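Question (not urgent): is this output format expected?
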Amino acid sequence: MKKQLIMDKALELFAKQGFEATSVQQITEHCGISKGAFYLSFKSKDELIIALIDHFMMQFTTEIDYIVRNTEIEKLLYDFYYATFHSFHQHSDFAKILMKEQSQTFNEEFIVKMHYFDRLIENIILSMIERLYGEEVKQTKYDLMYCIKGFMNTYSQLFLFYNVPLDLNLLSESLVEKTNLLARHTHVPFISEDLIQVIKQPMCEEGSKEQILEILEQKIEEIEEPIEKESLILLKQQLREPTLSPAIVKGLLENIRNHPLCKWISYLLQNYFEV
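Got this back:
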């Protein structure tokens, strides 16, 4: 609870002043706690910033990944855009900070973390494109992926920074139309498979078996609800020694997916087991 309080209060200051201009002293005064209490929760301001990025980006990534995997084709693109802009609007203070700070920061850990989540989002978008259009966009899928990322970034700036009224339904419908036009009527690719390999940043190792096991053990200790706890234990056993069918694994993941402490581990396990 204290960590969450610090994150919430720090976010208020970061939104007004930015990362660099906000000191630990200001954060502790805004929280009404001592510096000692701050350092029991976070080793540094940089660690706090990374925790905020993780908190927001994990929620966003797991939400759009679930939509892409489970929504019917007819609604998929609309639901993807709706969830994207709803999340940006719901967390507008932090979304503004991320957009501003990415162009100004020299913090290497911040940059690496943002590249990591950016790659995850790119993979989710590519998965959606393949579900929607298949072989039809084989040559242009990477260009289309960057166009979708451009829509997400540019249109979110309109209501985050310029106070343009946000009509989520109209915006989502408009971008569905634009995306379909691009997918079906563009034939000259710029970004090839070879080029995408060149520009890819190395992924950090989150998602390895060892790291997932470490997170699982932590969550098993934290969770008190019996269904979620038992599901985590069975998933841990499956990770160490696979014996369960894909259907059972999928059911166990569904048991934990909506628990606020399990969204990220559910996402990591889903990708690891490929279900």
